[in-house]
Write a structure and sequence with these properties.
By secondary structure, the protein is of the alpha/beta class. About 35% of the residues lie in helices and about 15% in strands. The strands form two sheets. Strands 3-2-1-4-5-6 form a six-stranded parallel beta sheet, sandwiched between helices. Strand 9, helix 11 and strand 10 form a beta-alpha-beta unit.
Length: about 325
């Protein structure tokens, strides 16, 4: 038996969706489990213990369809659930095709599933649970699960060397998710300054994560910090690729910052995570495994319900929450 799971993008979704593979392997131990994703997100699920093979979306629809059809799948689980993947599923030749119920794609699947409006568990939230719902037509009931990321021994050794290189001083290691994936998802930098200043009061070494094209923006941000905060930041810290970032993050004592791929990776690694949600992202869907201690998160609507502007999300609103997170994880 061959089973294909489809999730084209984004990084957080590709990671979250990987939770289904453990339960598929338990139910069908002899089955080959394949994952069709965009290649640029492969590193976040590389070395996954339950995924037997990765397929990547081709340059064209026909390239992707040809690759899928050649595998002769018995079951397809389309968690991406767009027109493109609905057509791939329908034309694949798989006898069982599962995805979410949508009026315009329901005929492409043998088992269109209606998403639950409320989560069964506050830990998993609807973000994880909706993926797990797609297993129910296969007789796999809901169980609490979280994504995991596996690192090789060599990746861990290299990460330790990187940390030693960029952090020769003792102290708790804190990763800052400095910027969001877009300006709209980035906590205003004047406010982020205050967040970092609070963290810098502790005995810490701070690594600031940002993309290469954000280097100039980070340099401009760095000079706005106090001398004390600047002294705590490993300014030359850099990683060569996503796998190296993941490995270094696995040795950190906490991650604090903008919601996105890095916060999802951090929680999957079991690193304490304090997430700042942008107003446009539904916190109740994405704050999986929040417990108010190891993982916590804040959203503008927790404090100002009538606004959708990041400019209204003052750091003093969640100062107590941040202090509690610091006390629990950085002292």
């Amino acid at each position: 038996m061959k089973i294909l799971v489809i999730q084209k993008k984004l990084m957080g979704d590709v990671l979250i969706c990987s939770v289904v593979f453990q339960f598929l392997k338990e139910k069908f131990p002899q089955a080959e489990l394949h994952y069709l994703i965009d290649k640029k997100y492969h590193q976040v699920v590389e070395h996954h213990r339950y995924i037997d093979k990765f397929l990547f979306f081709g340059k064209s629809f026909s390239d992707t369809l040809k690759a899928v059809k050649s595998e002769k799948y018995d079951i397809i689980i389309d968690t991406y659930s767009k027109i493109e993947t609905a057509l791939i599923s329908f034309l694949s030749g798989a006898k069982k095709r599962i995805s979410y119920y949508k009026s315009y794609t329901r005929y492409f699947y043998t088992n269109p599933v209606h998403r639950r409006k409320k989560a069964i568990s506050d830990l998993t939230t609807t973000t994880i649970e909706h993926r797990l719902q797609l297993l129910e037509p296969l007789g796999i009931p809901f169980r609490i699960a979280k994504p995991e990321i596996l690192l090789t021994d060599s990746e861990r050794r290299n990460a330790e060397a990187t940390i030693e290189k960029f952090s020769p001083n003792p102290g708790k290691k804190v990763m800052i998710s400095t910027f969001g994936s877009s300006p709209e998802k980035t906590y205003p930098l004047a406010f982020m300054t205050e967040v970092i200043e609070e963290i810098a009061k502790e005995d810490v070494v701070i690594f600031c994560n940002y993309l290469p094209n954000q280097k100039t923006q980070f340099d401009e941000f760095f000079v706005t910090l106090s001398v004390n905060a600047q002294s705590k930041i490993s300014k030359d810290f850099d990683t060569k690729n996503l796998r190296e970032f993941i490995a270094v993050l696995s040795f950190c004592d906490a991650l604090v910052g903008n919601e996105g791929g890095s916060t999802n990776i951090s929680k999957a690694l079991g690193v304490p995570t304090f997430t700042i949600f942008s107003p446009q992202v539904a916190k109740k869907s994405w704050n999986w495994f929040d417990d108010g201690i190891k993982n916590d998160s804040v959203h503008l609507h927790d404090y100002v319900t009538e606004s959708d502007s990041y400019d209204d999300f003052k750091p003093e609103f969640f100062k107590d929450k941040l202090h509690n997170f610091i006390a629990q994880n950085l002292r």
